[in-house]
Amino acid sequence: MGPANSDECNKALAKLEGMAAQWGIPLAKDKTTKPATNIIFLDIEIDSVQCLCKIPKTKIAELLEKIQGLTTKDKGTEAACRDGNDTAEDARITEGVINDGQKRRKSYSPVFLLLPHLMITACIPISHSLKGGFGKLLVISFDGFRWDYDQDVDTPNLDRISREGVKAKYVTPPFVTMTSPSHFTTITGRWIEDHGVIHNLMFDPETQKKFSHKATQNKTEWWDNGVLPLWITAQNQGKKVGSFHYPGGGANYSGQSVFRTLVESFTHPDSNETEWKENIDIVMNWFSKEDFDFVTLYYGEPDLVGHSPGPETEERKVIIRQIDRTIGYLIDVIEKHNLKEILNVIIMSDHGMTTVKKSPEVEEVLLSNYINFKDLVKFDILDYGGLGMVLPKPGKEEELYQALKIAHPHLHVYKKEEIPVLFHYAKNQRILPILVYGDLGYSINGRFIIYVNKGDHGFSNTEMDMKTIFRAFGPAFKQNYVTEPFDSIHIYPLMCHLLGVNPEPHNGSLAVTQEMLIATDIPGKSK
What we know:
By secondary structure, the chain is an alpha/beta fold. It has 3 domains: about 5-130, no CATH class; about 130-355 and about 465-520, Alkaline Phosphatase, subunit A, CATH 3.40.720; about 365-450, Gyrase A, domain 2 (2-Layer Sandwich), CATH 3.30.1360.180. Helices cover about 25% and strands about 20% of the residues. The radius of gyration is 25 Å and the shape is globular.
C-alpha cells in the first residue's frame, strides 16, 4: 500500500465518521498526532487507506478482548491494536502474529462498538505514523561471515557503522546452518520446517536427481511452498523491490516474480572487489533514480575463503579487509546519492564457519565404515558439510538407524520424528526419514572421503562458530547501540516495520529488535 494523499485521507475519515453516525455514535476529533503514554493506537483501514486512531489506555483490556472475539463482517475495514508501551506479547499482537505464526489481526466492522471511547486523529498512513516513512531499506548479506571475524582484523568502516548505528553481539541462524535455508528464513520470517527450503540442494528421492546450489537458485518448485518472501509481500503493498543475487530472488511465488531480480551465474566471480563496488553503484541508482523501496544484495564472501583455505587463515583476514573497504565505499555512495536521511541499511549473514577436523588428528566420520549402502540405502544427501539425510530401502529403516546410532562418538542420528523441537526442522515432508549431523568440525562423509574443504558449516546452530553478524545504520536506528544476541528469525518483522509493510504470518517478533530503533519510531515509547 502506497502513501495516501490528503484527499484520500479526508475521504476515508469522512466515511469513518459517516459509519459511526449511522450507529448514533458521536466522534470527537483530535488533530494531535503526537503519541502519548496514556493511550493506545488503533489502525483502521478504510478503502485501502489506513487511519491512526487513539483510545484511552484504560480501555486496552476491553479492546483486546473484543478484538480477539470479533468476526469478519466488513472486508473494507481492518483494525489492529498498537499499545504505546507494548510488552513482548503485545508487540506480537501489534505485528498481527504470535510465535506459532497464527494471525491475530482481524477485519471487522463491529469495531465501532468501541467508538464511545474513540478519538479520531488526523488521517495519516500507518507507515508514516510508525516512521516506516523513513521508507527505503537495503539489506546486504555477506555469506559465511562468522560473528567474530572482525575481531582480529582492523575494520575501520565496520567500526564506524557500529558507532553510528547498531551492532548485535551475535545472531543465531536457523538449523540447518546452510546458505539457502538460512537466507529464506530471514526473508520470510519462518522456520525452515515451515518454508520448506530445507537444503542448499534441490533433490528428488524418487528420480535420484540432485541439483547444485547455483542450479537450485532457478528452480521455482524448490522455493515456492506457499510462504511469501518479503519481496512479494512488499510489492503487493505498493513497494518497488529488487533482489541482487540474494538466494530465492529468482523464483516465482504464487505466480509472481520479484519486480527486478538478478541471479548469480554459474561462473560468477565471488571475490572481485571491483565488481562488488559496481553492484553497489547499480543498487544505489535503483534507489535514487528509479525510486526503489527495498533491495536485497548478496555477496558470496567470506564463505568461499572460509571453505578453502579455511576460517583461521591470513586469506580470511584479507577478505574481511576487502569487505570493510566495500562497506566504506557503500557509506560514501549513500551520501553521494543523497540517501543518508531516507535509507536504512542492514548488514547480515547466513551462518558462520569452522575448521574441519581431519585425519590423522581425528577419526573422520565415514558412514561406509558402519553401514552397507547397497543393502540399506535407497537415496542420500551426504558429503555436504556437517549435515546429511538418508532414505532407507523399504523395511530397512530400523536396521539402518540402529547401525548409525552406534557408529561414531561424534555423530548424531535421529529419526525424523525424533529431531529436537528446538531445531524447527522436522515438520516438513521433504525431510528424509533419518537425519545425521556431526559435532563441530566433523563433516559427514558417505561412501568415500572426497571432501577437500578446510572449513565448513551445516553444524548445529547452538555452536558459537555457526553464529553470525548483524549491523544496522540509518535514520531509524539508534547510534552506538549494542544489542543482545537474537535469532535471525526476528529480522523479518524488523524489515516489515522499517518498510511500513503489513507482514505475512511469521515466527519472529518485533519486540526482540525494537529497542535498537530510535524511540520515536515506536508509538508511546519514551525517549
